[in-house]
Amino acid sequence: MKSMLQQPFGRILLVTLLVLLPSAALYLTRAATPVDLHIDGDYPNARLQSVEYIDDKTVRIRAARDPDAPEGLWFRFRVTSTTPVKPTFKLENFDELSQGNWHVVAPMFSVDGERWQAAESSGVENGLLDRLQRKVNGGKAEFAFTAPFAARAFEVAYSTPYDLDTLNAWLATLPDDLAAIDAIGTLRSGRTIPLITFGAGAATAKQHVWIIGREHPGETPSSFFLQGLVDETLANLNAFPSTRFHVVPILNVDGVAEGLYYRNPQSVDLAKDWQAQQSEELRLLSRAMRPTLESSKVALVINAHAANAPLNHFMIKPLRHLQSEAVYQTQQRLMKLLDDMHPQFSLENGIDMWDLPGICGNYLPAKHGVYCLYIESNYNIGADGSRVTPDTLDAFGASMSRALARFLNEGAATNQEMEAN
User: Fold this and answer.
1) Is a pLDDT exceeding 60 seen at residue 420?
2) Strand boundaries in 141-242, DSSP class E
3) For residues 361, 367, 371 and 372, what is the CA-based torsion angle, rounded to 10 degrees?
4) Cα atoms in the 13 Å half-sphere on the side-chain side of 37
5) DSSP state letter for 5
6) What's the Cα-to-Cα distance from 408 to each of 187, 348, 394, 414, rounded to whole Å?
7) What distances in angstroms separate CA 92 from CA 61, 380, 388, one per listed residue?
8) pLDDT by residue (tens digit) across 237-264?
9) Contact 129/19 with Cβ under 8 angstroms?
10) Is 175 exposed, middle or buried (0-12, 13-18, 19+ CB in 10 A)?
11) Which residues contact 154 (CB under 8 A, 6 or more apart)?
């Protein structure tokens, strides 16, 4: 005679017990154990919509959308407890947020706000028992991630943060004799938008390059990339003898301060505001760029962003029918130089630009005949399958600087030949 567990009914009973018993234990834990956790998402660059304390080891959270906007992704919050804790967080609304590829996402943890570690484990809870429990108890799949250590106080973020304090600390390291730090203007909030200039003198420069970061405030990898690009360029300025650089490291400073992901606090997407200029930020940037654009000496604009798809660093390719022949040839020259510049970057696995007149990549070519290079850094994974970190992003930026030197020097030589003829 078959044992009870060998019978179909017995197997069903076993699975049911496996599902229900943990639920019963969880219910008892909720009732009997006071929660020794406190979560705070109300400080600069932090953001969280809601918190549900399940028990001392499990917390359900919801990431907030930007105000009056459909986009949302960024979260950052502080955890405190009277005893060391190592909780698991369940992101309830992960499937409603703006980026996908959650199978590679690893939120970050830090005790001191400077050194960040990836979650010990992370992933969408979609195993057999997870699905059975949802059938019994209701609910939907959640993205769960566990702290990599136990501590009384620590921070959690979607990716390694790069806030205004981080920016100011980096600006303080730039050599005074090489780089000038100013601002393109001050917003109504009282925050200034920094501007770094370096290279050839304003009167002697034969070409200008603008580098713009963080139109979208939650795209933190782009700042580590931009930092590496600037540091490498400053260390090798002799490779750029006739170029003057203008760098706006964080355009959306209000959005960064308020922990937003995609828009500014007035719900304007700065990336799409180049033509309408509804935002203070784009009006100030346009005013700052105007003299160099009107001089017809802007060789390139680099616009740094971040995404989680495709799974590598990539460039956004302009639509051919929206580009003049000169701008198209600029893009082709750059693509040859960018190929194989860094193992986490893929030239082939990119995306095509959107047919939107208000974005930098379409507005500048149409208005000023200037090519805008969109560089997108992945939050998590490079083209070679390796993990993206602040150090690899810094190295990616440095490789971009070296490619840029070749591009600009080739362009300068071509211009000299044309002038000679």
Assistant:
1) no
2) 143-146, 151-157, 179-186, 192-199, 207-213
3) -30
4) 25
5) G
6) 33, 23, 21, 10
7) 6, 20, 25
8) 999 999 999 999 999 999 999 999 999 9
9) yes
10) exposed
11) 78, 79, 109, 110, 111, 147
Q: What is the pLDDT of residue 34?
A: 52
Is it the case that residue 413 has pLDDT exceeding 80? no
pLDDT at 18: 43
Residue with tokens 């969109």: 374
Q: Which amino acid does the sequence have at 244?
A: R
**199: how many CB neighbours lie within 10 A of its CB?**
21
- Residue 273's SS3 state is coil
How remote is the C-alpha of 46 from its chain's centroid?
15
Give per-residue pLDDT as tens, 164-181: 999 999 999 999 999 999
CA distance 142 to 145: 10
Q: Scanning the structure block, which residue is given the tokens 């005949």?
A: 369
Residue with tokens 């770094």: 196
The CA distance from 220 to 256, in Å, is 9
Length of the chain: 421
Task: Tokens for 381, please give them.
Answer: 């994974």
The distance in angstroms from the start CA to the end CA of the chain is 99
Q: What single-letter DSSP state applies at residue 37?
A: -
Task: Sheet containing 314-317: give its strands across.
Answer: 179-186, 192-199, 243-248, 207-213, 298-307, 372-378, 314-317, 351-352
pTM above 0.85, yes or no: yes
For the four alpha carbons of 236, 240, 244 and 245, in that order, the dihedral sign comes to negative
Token pair, residue 340, equals: 């194989």
Look at residue 33 and give its three-state secondary structure: coil
Closest CA to 266 of 84, 67, 118, 34: 67
* Angle of CA points 73, 75, 76, to nearest 5°: 160
Query: Contact 145/125 with Cβ under 8 angstroms?
Result: no
275: CB partners within 8 A, 6+ apart: 357, 358, 363
Task: Give, in order, the Cα–Cα distances in Å from 226 to each of 100, 247, 249, 356.
Answer: 24, 9, 7, 25
- Rounded CA-CA distance 24/18 in Å is 10
